Amino acid sequence: MTGLGIVIAILVTLVAVLIPWLPTSASEEMDRIEFVYWFATVICIAVFALVMAVLLYSVMAFRSPPEDESDGPPIHGNTNLEVAWTVVPAILVIAIGVISAFVMSKNGEAGPNPLNVKVFAQQFAWRFVYPDDNEVKSGELVLPVNRSAKFEMESADVIHSFWIPAMGQKQDLVPGIKTRIIVTPTRTGVFSLVCTELCGVGHATMRATVRVVSQEDFVAWVKERSDGGGGGGVSGDKAAALFADAGCGGCHAFTPAGTTGEIGPNLDDLVAAAQKAGQDPADYVREAIVDPGKVIAPGYQDGVMPPSYGETLSPAEIDSLVAYLTGAK
Amino acid sequence: MSAHAEALHGSDHHGPPAANQSSRIAPTILGMFLFIGTEAMLFGSFFAAYFFVRVVNPDAPDSWPPSPYEFPQFVAGINTAILVTSSFTMHWALQSVKRNNRRGLQAGLVLTILMGIAFLLTQFIEYAHIGFNTGDGAFASVFFGLTGLHGAHVLVGLLLLTFATIRAFRGHYSPEHHHGVELPGIYWHFVDVMWIVVYVTVYLI
Amino acid sequence: MSAVEHESHGAGHGSGEPTRQRSILMRPGFVRAAWCFALFFLVGLYLVAGIRWLAGWDPVYDWNIIVLVGGLTLAPIGFLLGLGSFDYWLYWISGRPTIPDDHANHGARTWKDYFKVNTDHKVIGVQYLVTTFVFFTLGGLMAMLFRAELAQPGMQFMDTQTYNGLVSMHAALMIFVFIIPAFAGLANFAVPLMLGAPDMAFPRLNALSFWFLPIAGTMFLCSFLAPGGAFATGWTSYAPLASDQPIGQVFFNMGVQWAGASSILTALNFLVTIITMRAPGMTFWRMPLLVWANFTTSLLVVIATPFIAGSQFFVMFDRVMHTSFFVPAEGGYVLGYQHIFWFYSHPAVYIMILPGFGIISEIISVMSRKPIFGYRLMAMSLLGILVLGFSVWAHHMFVAGMTDWLRVPMMISTLLIAVPTGVKVFSWLATLWEGRIKLNTPMLFSLGFISMFVIGGLSGIYLASVPITIHASDTYFIVAHIHYVLFGGSVLTIFAGIYYWFPKMTGRMYNERLGKLHFWLTFISFNLTFFPMHWVGLVGMPRRVADYADRFADLNLVVTISSFALGASVVVFFYNMIVSWTRGPIADPNPWRAMTLEWQVSSPPPIFNFDEIPQVVGGPYEYGVPGARHAILTSTTAPAAQEVHG
Fold first, then answer.
1. What per-residue string of b and e applies to C362-382 under the rule 16 or more CB within 10 Å gives b?
2. What pLDDT, on the 0 to 100 scale, is given for residue C102?
3. What's the start-to-end Cα distance of chain C, in Å?
4. DSSP states of C537-575 as a string?
5. Element (DSSP H or E) covering residue B13
6. Residue C439 pLDDT greater than 50, yes or no
7. Which residue in chain B is spatially nearest to A178 when comparing CA positions?
8. Minimal CA–CA distance to C255: which of C169, C337, C144?
9. Shortest alpha-carbon distance between residue B83 and chain C (Å)
10. What is the pLDDT of residues C7-16, one digit of tens each?
11. Whether pLDDT at C643 is above 50
12. Terminal-residue alpha carbon distance, chain B
């Protein structure tokens, strides 16, 4: 039976090692999570191998044909054994608990000079604001590498959840309260941020791009974004920034903005659609932003686009978006 | 499957063997206590909502109820007195049937029902004049939730008491057999106790 | 509750049923149920409209409230009234003479008796199982529909609202009207027999709680017909999303109330039966573990279920009465929903597995021909799970934004639940050891259960650990975990229990070869379906998504194909059940040579279970003990003799 146990343990270990169960870590927090994960895995392999070995061995060794009417030995219990399999698992799980508590508290601490980022979620878009960096707003999350980011998160409507799989950390955004989480990216690259709490019809595609860049690139990005949003008038650049900030590109393809979303209708066709409906393109687009449920493009669903843009964007901002989308300058 | 059973029993076999009574408590009484336990947990969930709104919520109001609203403590206090008194009349009814005092049983039940109705009417009038509605904030949700849940229980209690009263006037109870009075009585006492908790937590604290 | 009344001082000649023949319209049955249903709906409609008209509210016909009051509350009550669930009590209430042990509606003489309000616990048990398997089939078909959608990234067959609706419906049907009541059905059949009781303590209440169940399930399903589609917020139905969804959501809120009321009343009935109706000599320490399991489960149900009722009430109030329990702008507290919901729904996972533990304990002991190892510790571990089960709810909320200090205590208590659970697994293994193992279908399902449940339990250890759960929560890892514990756990035990008691329920034997085929098909396709989900979840696929990133496509295709195979495996089961029930070989009273009381009477058991209440003289699992007996039956209806081995 010991042999059987070892064989099972080796097989399970191979399954555990050969399959890349976790995404390649991209944050300090994920590194620590991986440590707990492997700690628990070793214990679980041992327990599983033990249980399966006893079970399979018993089935093979003690199987008896249906016509055999004899009974097994009347063993009612064994106090030592029972104490052992109460105490040993208790010790093992408490060990996991202690390690987990330790890692949990480590993952709740930010490194030096953390970057503050505010996260706003609504059905079904993400927005990020950098309060210490000229209040830069963005629809994609840009983070400097090797610097802790402290996220302070709010939801405008229902519960959403913030998760970058490669970075491990996850936190719900709850209407009415501010939630916080810390992520320290360890490698540059492009990742994806997904909503993991069912939030309505557009939940599956409520994603955002996460770009981890070097500190210099980050500073440059902040500078570029701050300059772009400088003027008070309706400029094309500002409208483009607004288009990105409001998360439009998450769902809509629009060539001038370089977005390729497929959840909502392609915005390159907006003017044509307005003409087909016999409406002034500006009115048509304005209505589509403020009251998205009124006209639903064929092949798309009602209720996916948030109806709240009429409130969250100022009239001037809507004007500039309309101008941007209809191609007027 | 039953043909088999009938063959075994014969057609003159009418019923099952009497079940062994393995506990001193009567099944109906135990059932009522368990039911009250589960009812208490239902109230518990409403109190949990109250606790979240008033204590846990970081935006909880400083005063309870938030100004300018007020709860009619005095009227509700009188209502409390009515309900507590009705518990005594209920007890009197039960004692009467145990002593074979039929008039006492009937009078006790009728008085209890009348006081229960008075309680419900008072609460209804209180709702009408309270000055806020269910849509006026979480404090109102909790207030109407708890008092409304309790009111619904008073109504159920009154129904049970009415059933008992009908049978009491038909002379169905005796000193030996009065579970039909005892069970609504237990329920009624529970409703009273629950009211005191609701009154203290919602109106007074 | 007048439901628990049993008293009578009538002359004893009358009965709940008048003897004169009434017209089909007035007789208890589906015809009367139909018109009562319509009548009560109209009463609800005009009650709501009348009050709104009197109060001067606009609109007078507020369909949200009319559907809720008329359609989902009063109409089902009318249906039950028409069916005859309340007849006896109404006679009692009106002061007419009744006899408490009126057995007019007891037992099944033809198949039609299964479609009536029947007070026989054995009939009710079968009613439960057949009903729940209807919902199981529908829920399974829905799973295959949305698995088809998930075979490829992008949307192919349905829009996302429909997808969310199917996912939510699948879970609601499987949890509320399949697993929980299927266990209630098995226990309904077995527990009174095992206790040596002639029936449940409150047979009419038992019948009523069964009939709540088709109402609940039908209510869930009817939400597909509601404008805006079925409820689509997952079975957890988190506020505030749930309070501003289309009207279909109310069907969920109310369906849960009916299902919850059903399980509370059943649990209450079990508790009273187990406490007050045990046969002489049947002390608590001589009760079979199935009875112990249902005792603890019933305690959990009675204590916890009102909390889900509360949570669904609040969501409904927020919708129809404009309250603000979960509206932060008005002073509501969103996380309150989750705390209240999980205070029920965590114990609910034990409600869905403890009865299974009981079934497995019975089968392992009988099929290994050995006493259960560590009987007392097995019973105590059930109680341990019961107590710990109430202190772990917030482990569903580690990423929910709740207060931080709750995390570590909840993590530790969650991890500690592994200890009593581990005790059970090790004790089953020790029972197998040196036994005379009969590898028949119930035993195969039991062994399959142990191995699958261990995987589910171990992934539960990962999920108890806060840092891992922060990564894994709300992903397909969770989906994999719950299916390992609910399908690999609960459903396999339900199958095991059905095969085990099939000869007792029907008097016929199932086909062993088909049973084994069913097991292996299920076992293999189950693992192929759900094991890859661990992986796809850990690398980044969230749960409840209609669409997913292209990199998860291959694994999802594998899962979809396997899920169809899993669906097909159930066909073997149904074929076996239906054919064996009608044409299977006649079964012995005690084909497994078991000692517990249900096997000491004929198959199927006599209509009132026992001619004389048996005298219990020993433990229920004394296999291999020379001369040991569990009980002495004096009746002639018992099969030849007690099993004495050794």
1. bbbbbbbbbbbbbbebbbebb
2. 66
3. 50
4. HHTTPBSS-SS--GGGHHHHHHHHHHHHHHHHHHHHHHH
5. none
6. yes
7. B58
8. C169
9. 20
10. 333 333 334 4
11. no
12. 62
Which of the residue ranges A108-112, C191-195, C530-534 would you say has the lowest mean pLDDT? A108-112
Token look-up 């530790």 returns: C412
Q: Which residue of C has its CA nearest to A195?
A: C542
Q: Roughly what angle, to the nearest 10 degrees, separates helices C407-432 and C375-389?
A: 160
Q: For residue C182, what are its two tokens?
A: 């299927």
Nearest to residue A165, comparing CAs of C551, C554, C471, C546? C471
Task: Note whether A55 contacts C233, CB cutoff 8 Å.
Answer: no
Quote the ipTM score. 0.91
**Nearest in space to B85 (alpha carbons), one of B179, B195, B159:** B195
B13 Cβ contact list (under 8 Å, min separation 6):
none
Q: Which residues of B are less than 8 Å from C317 in CB distance? A: 134, 141, 145
Which of B160, B42, B33, B35 has the alpha carbon at shortest distance from C257?
B42
**Strand order across the beta sheet in which A141-144 lies:** A141-144, A207-213, A189-195, A160-163, A170-173
- As a whole number of angstroms, the distance between CA C349 and CA C344 comes to 9
For residues C238, C240, C246, C250, the Cα torsion angle rounded to the nearest 10 degrees is 60
Check CB contact under 8 Å for B45 and C305: no
Residue C218 pLDDT: 96
CB contact under 8 A, C645 and A70: yes
Is any Cβ of chain A less than 8 angstroms from the Cβ of C433?
yes
Q: Is B59 on the interface with A (CB under 8 A)?
A: yes
Chain B residues 60-119 within an 8 A CB cutoff of chain C: 60-61, 66
| Closest residue, chain A, to B56 (C-alpha) | A177
Question: Of C91 and C205, which is predicted with more confidence?
Answer: C205
B27 touches chain C (CB under 8 A): yes
Residue C509 has phi, psi (to 5 degrees) of -100, 140
C-alpha–C-alpha distance, residues C512 and C493, integer Å: 17
Does A175 reach chain B within 8 Å, measured CB to CB? no
Give which of A42, A103, A104, A301 to mutate to test C binding, by max C Cβ within 10 Å: A104
Which one is predicted more confidently, B205 or C511? C511
Rounded distance between C-alpha atoms, residue A52 and residue A70, angstroms: 26
Q: Do B4 and C604 touch (CB under 8 A)?
A: yes
Contacts of C194 (CB under 8 A, 6+ apart): C287, C288, C290, C291, C596, C597, C598, C620
Work out whether strand A160-163 and strand A170-173 pair parallel, antiparallel, or are unpaired: antiparallel
Which H or E element spans position B55? none
Condensed to tens digits (0 to 9), the pLDDT of residues A223-258 reads 888 875 444 444 566 777 778 777 777 678 788 777
Q: How far apart (Å, rounded) are the C-alpha atoms in residues A104 and C539?
A: 20
Percent pLDDT > 70 in chain B is 93
Q: If you count them, how many residues does chain C have?
A: 646
Paired sense of beta strands C631-632 and C615-616, if any: antiparallel
| Residue C609 C-alpha from the chain's centroid | 24
Q: What is the mean pLDDT of residues C398-416?
A: 92
Interface contact flag, B22 C279, Cβ < 8 Å: yes
* Whole-structure pTM value: 0.91
**DSSP letter, residue C111:** G
> Would you say C148 and C165 are in contact if contact means Cβ atoms under 8 Å apart?
no
Residue A194, helix vs strand vs coil: strand
Q: Which of A46, A96, A174 is nearest to C466 (CA)?
A: A96
Unique residue bearing structure tokens 């959403």: A160
What would the pLDDT profile of C30-87 be if each residue is shown by its tens digit? 999 999 999 999 999 999 999 999 988 888 898 889 999 999 999 999 999 999 899 8
A254-287 pLDDT, tens digit each: 887 777 666 778 888 888 888 888 888 888 888 8
Take residue C254 and report the two structure tokens written for it.
């109310």
Nearest CB to C331: which of B28, B59, B160?
A: B59
